[in-house]
Amino acid sequence: QVHLVESGGGLVQFGGSLKLSCAASGYFDGIKDMGWFRQAPGKGRELVASISSDGVPNYSDSAKGRFAISRDSAKNTVYLQMNLLKTDDTAVYYCHAVVQLGWDTMSVMRDQPTRHEEDYWGQGTQVTVSS
């Protein structure tokens, strides 16, 4: 079983900063991509930022220039530094990871082995930005 545990959410004023952390634990062979999604009341879940296993970041347009994603692969942890927060950033933030668990059986049978990958989500942490 793989668990993602988030921390760092809370209440912050407009223009303030917060740093979210998410640590993966359990048994797995590796972690491919890690990232953060968010869901505001009445809206769908959307990508905020993600980072590949070799450290290449990807940001949504709303996050560019204000947020920074990083990861410590040795600790299986991903961070999201959020600056210049706006009221529109108010949402539940979810950690996401693509976890590698063993080998994909069909790919092995085809003599083209690839890792079996599964998506895991954290429980979510509330970020509220007050005006």
Low-pLDDT regions: none
How many β-strand runs? 11
Backbone shape? elongated
SSE class: mainly beta
For the biggest sheet, the summary is: 7 strands, mixed
Characterize the structure shown.
The chain is elongated. Strands 2, 4, 5, 6, 9, 10 and 11 form a seven-stranded mixed sheet that branches. Strands 1-3-8-7 form a four-stranded antiparallel sheet, with no helix packed on it. It has one helix and eleven strands. The longest helix has 5 residues, at 105-109. With 131 residues, it is mainly beta. The mean pLDDT is 96. Strand 4 and strand 5 (46-51) form a beta hairpin.
Short structural description:
Helix content is 4%, strand content 58%. It is mainly beta and 131 residues long. It starts with a strand and ends with a strand.
List key phrases describing it:
7-stranded mixed sheet, 11 strands, 131 residues, 4-stranded antiparallel sheet, mainly beta, 58% strand
What are the SSEs and their pairings?
Layout: E1 2-7, E2 10-13, E3 18-26, E4 30-39, E5 46-51, E6 57-59, E7 67-72, E8 77-82, E9 91-103, H1 105-109, E10 115-121, E11 125-130
